[in-house]
Amino acid sequence: MKDIKLKIDKTVEWLREKVKEANSKGLIVGVSGGIDSAVVAYLIKKAFPENSMGVIMSIKSNPNDREDALKVINGCGIEILDLDLTQPQDLILSTVINSLKEKNLYKEDYLKMTDANLRARVRMSTVYTVANNLGYLVVGTDNAAEIHTGYFTKYGDGGVDLVPLSNLTKKEVYEWAKVLGVHKDVINKAPSAGLWEGQTDENEMGTTYDMIDAVVEGRLDEVPQKDKEIIDRLHRVSEHKRHTPAGPPKF
Description:
alpha/beta; four-stranded parallel beta sheet; 54% helix
């Protein structure tokens, strides 16, 4: 526990340094009610007690997620902005779909993922709108397992200024959450991006965070071949997410 507390303190100091380098005033994070955003909320509150904010952004969301998000907000005492973005997200989605239908281009099979990714991008646009007005940097919530597998939306939850959990396995995120004092309901819930009803991270990926953590840490002998193939494929097809957009060479 002492080692974790030291790493937390160093991460908090790193956050302060990055804000100073950017000549910014504070930090902001979208709080979903999940474990990763909970840990980040606690970290940025420690870094900037008077200049940090957590934003709840419901979009056709499960009410339980908002309740868990409020437990995080109340637990760390961070400033809150509680927004319902269902209407603007619906407006964008319906406008695009109707236009595609008029041209006979609409693909019903892709609607679920189109809707899900739009939710993430509307949320991130919203966080940046708030951040710009306050002079804050936007803090991401992706951990090492999610970065390795590309389990984030490009220009959605992946579009941020700082990623303080990027070196932590999912297991380590839970360990930090316990040390920081995150509510047990948030710690005990199944990880989910909240992209649709009943969605969980592990069901969607087809493997577990324990298996991904093992790959990230190089413990490949502990990973069954089936899981290794899934993780390797996720890593391969998401390579573009881990880089700035590609440009051609100079001709």
